[in-house]
Amino acid sequence: MGMHTTRQNRMSNFELLRIVAMLLVMFGHSHMRIYPFPTEATISQHSVVSFVEIMTGCFSTMGVGIFVAISGWFGIRFKVEGLLKYVFQVLFVLWSIYGVAILFDITELNTTGLKISMGFYEGYWFVISYLGLYLLSPVLNSFIENTSKRTFQTVLLSLMLFQCYFSWLTAWYDYYNGYSIVLFSIIYLTAAYFRKYPMAWIERYAPWLLAAVISTMAVIATTSLWQFGHAARQIRDDNPLVILATILLLLCFKKLRFQSKTINWLAASCFSVYLIHFNPFVYPYLMSAIRYVYSQYDGIAYGIMFLLLLLATYIACTVIDQARIFVWKKTRLIHLEQIVK
Question: Which of 32, 33, 85, 321 could form an SS bridge with 272, CB 3.0 to 4.6 Å?
Answer without folding.
Answer: 321
